[in-house]
Amino acid sequence: MTAAVPTDSAAVEVRGLVKRYDKVEALRGVDLTVRRGEMFALLGPNGAGKTTLFSILATLRAPTAGTARVLGHDVVTDRDAVRRSMGIVFQEPAIEQRLTGRDNLLLMGLFYGLGSAAARQRAAELLKQLDLADAADRPAKNLSGGQRRKLELARALVTDPQILFLDEATVGLDVDARRGFWAQVRGLAATGRTVFFTTHYMEEAEVADRIALIDHGQIVALDTPQALKTRVGGGVIRLQTEDNARARGWLTEHGLAPEAGGQEIMLVHADPAAVLPELLRTLPVKVQRVEVHEPSLEDVFLKLTGRGFDGETPVPAGRPGGRNGGAA
Ligand SMILES: Nc1ncnc2c1ncn2[C@@H]1O[C@H](COP(=O)(O)OP(=O)(O)OP(=O)(O)O)[C@@H](O)[C@H]1O
Ligand SMILES: [Mg+2]
């Protein structure tokens, strides 16, 4: 055993982290602190460096430069302690497809040094906790996609880790299966566990306490979802009027600068609720439809980097116009 870890250490502490693969610099000086008990999301386009960062934190790859600590343990000099304290769910399956759900968990428990009775008990607990009774005695390959992902989660939880890394853990699942998965994760977070995750589904990122946006191996913003969104300008107002050209002219004269183009009129404003009543009263053109919505996280990324996350980013629910219909 290594020296006791101060309980006030952060869950994850990354300083000046660089990772180079031959010619690619996947991480270019990342600084990041995840607090204990936090649900923390890392968002960024394909190739931004998310999996690279997770694999360094999980001690599967060594950094080229800089330091990283998990619950106070250094990922290079204290690998075993890091491994004991964390669980990880990768996008790629790690469960053994021919084994039953129960046997997958048993195997993991034995691998981590639990005695056979303890491993059996832990497997039973997890199958119950994650609603995997159906999966207990069937080969993993015969389970539904959602059950398999939950089994991956159960596998990561065998050691009762204080911190959980989820790298696109729900990719490819339908909405119901994702909801079920996240209900379990939120339950864990509620018990004080730290959850550090990546996702390409924006509605999943919304549940995070804080989000780091990563682009080309660098953190470009780090804040609460709400604070990130206010960087776009607070809110988006969309108007459909009887005469949009005239309405645009009037808005511009009154300093409200509508965004260029689009069928509707789009205004980004720090506080839509404060200006909207007055605007609707004084605009000399009849308004047929008005809508106010929050900027999305992708709007934030667009504003910061000039690009969207990637072509596969699902259209956020309730947001007409999709990924290019936002405020950037
Ligand atoms: N083993 C490797 N050898 C060489 N280059 C690699 C290796 N793994 C990743 N890279 C490169 O490092 C960069 C970061 O990759 P990484 O997998 O960390 O991105 P990511 O943010 O997880 O992307 P995605 O959203 O697609 O999963 C990419 O340019 C990638 O091609
Ligand atoms: Mg990845």
Description:
With 328 residues, the chain is α/β, with parallel strands linked by helices. It has two domains: 12-224, Rossmann fold (3-Layer(aba) Sandwich), CATH 3.40.50; 228-324, Alpha-Beta Plaits. Helix content is 33%, strand content 24%. It contains eleven helices and 13 strands. The strands form three sheets. The chain has a six-stranded mixed β-sheet, with helices on both faces. A hairpin with a 2-residue loop joins strand 9 and strand 10. Helix 3 packs across helix 4 and helix 5 (145-157) runs parallel beside helix 6. It is elongated, with a radius of gyration of 23 Å. The chain starts with 11 loop residues before the first strand and ends in a 23-residue tail after the last helix. 40% of the residues are buried. The model is unreliable at 311-328 (pLDDT under 50). The structure holds adenosine-5'-triphosphate and magnesium ion.
